[in-house]
Amino acid sequence: MNVPANLKYSNDHEWCRIEGDVAVIGITDFAQSQLGDIVFVDVPTVGETLAAGEVFGSIEAVKTVSDAFLPVGGEVLEFNDAVDADPSIVNKDAYGEGWLVKVRMSNPAEYDALLSPAEYEQLIG
């Protein structure tokens, strides 16, 4: 499994990268491999302010639907239009073009509390 060293991770298999006061969030390579072929991503929360751990959307694969949880709280600023147009991008490039949302963090300390790459690798075994 690919676990980039420049990201932080949640127990729910989301990754997080900081750009200023904005967190870019997606699902991990492990999560997309467990889901299988992703056919639809729904993020109805753009413009809403949510707490860390809250559901911000859902990811539909051929065999299942999974909730997506915010690893850090804040205002959901943007949903990735490319993923909206072609959800399979998440399967092809989970850590790059397949990002899901951008969030203006309300508490940057929540980012520091996320799992390190080594801790996430232990979680997924």
Structure, described:
By secondary structure, this protein is an alpha+beta fold. The protein has one domain: OB fold (Dihydrolipoamide Acetyltransferase, E2P) (Beta Barrel). 22% of the residues lie in helices and 35% in strands. The chain has helices spanning 29-35, 81-85, 89-92, 109-112, 117-124; strands at residues 8-9, 14-19, 22-27, 38-42, 49-50, 55-61, 65-69, 74-79, 101-105. The chain has a 6-stranded antiparallel beta sheet. Strand 1 and strand 2 (14-19) form a beta hairpin. The longest helix has 8 residues, at 117-124. The protein is globular. The model has no long low-confidence stretch (mean pLDDT 96).
Entry keywords:
single chain; 125 residues; alpha+beta; OB fold (Dihydrolipoamide Acetyltransferase, E2P); 3-stranded antiparallel sheet; 9 strands
* Whole-number count of domains: 1
Low-confidence stretches: none
In CATH, what is the homologous superfamily? RNA polymerase II/Efflux pump adaptor protein, barrel-sandwich hybrid domain
Radius of gyration: 13 Å
Report strand %.
35-45%
Shape: globular
What's the rounded overall pLDDT mean? Answer: 96
- Which sheet architecture does the biggest sheet show? 6 strands, antiparallel
Euclidean distance between termini CA atoms: 10 Å
Which strand order does the major sheet show? 1-2-3-9-8-5
* Helix proportion: 10-25%
CATH class: Mainly Beta
Sequence of secondary-structure elements:
EEEHEEEEEHHEHH
CATH topology, by name, is OB fold (Dihydrolipoamide Acetyltransferase, E2P)
How many beta strands in the DSSP annotation?
Answer: 9
Number of helices: 5
Per CATH, the architecture is: Beta Barrel
Structural class estimated from helices and strands: alpha+beta
